[in-house]
Specification:
Elements: E1 5-12, E2 17-22, H1 25-33, H2 39-42, E3 47-55, H3 58-69, H4 73-80
Antiparallel strand pairs: 1-2, 1-3
Length: 83
Amino acid sequence: MDDKAYTYIVECADGTLYTGWTTDIEKRIETHNEGKGAKYTRSRLPVRLVYYEIHGNRSEAMKREAAIKKLSRKDKLKLIHTL
């Protein structure tokens, strides 16, 4: 079984950033853009993937998501531009 998980940041159509985690990044972005993703992104479509990290399991991805969410917008933009 593949335990790989991702922490990701998408940029919404209004320029805001949303951070989440998933085990299937392509499907998750598609789900966001179908309006079936997070409540936050539903009214800010379309979203564009701007950053992601690969983790060994869901727990690591969820912990990283929580850490990223605590960052300021400025720090999130710095993180995005490290790619």
